Amino acid sequence: MTTSPLPDLLKILSDELNALAEMTEAMHDLICTDHPRQDAPYVRAVQSIDRTQQTLENLATFLAVAGDHAPAEYEVALQSALETVRLGDLKHRLAISRQAVNGLARPSDPGGEFELFA
Fold first, then answer.
1. What is the C-alpha separation between 50 and 74, in angstroms, rounded?
2. Cα Rg for the chain, rounded, in angstroms?
3. Alpha helices by DSSP H, the chain
4. What's the pTM?
């Protein structure tokens, strides 16, 4: 059975949300260039991206601080939860060992092959 100490799990989740916040910020920068028309739907879309980025950052910080105060002796069974994760690299990061958490380096490139969803 795969288990993780609660503080480690919260740290990993925080790291994942921070990475998503960074990617969202990059999308925001792409879309917010000199757009020829600043109509209401465009402004709402930009505000939505900004709100998403801020929410991800806030959740990441919340989980990191909660993890700092979570008892290390609490273990979380992950097997059932891991079975729901379809992205292999994400599943691997969520299941890493305690020793790897301290040395966890977030890849700057999400890796894998590019897949365009239609």
1. 35
2. 17
3. 6-31, 40-69, 79-82, 88-94, 98-102
4. 0.72
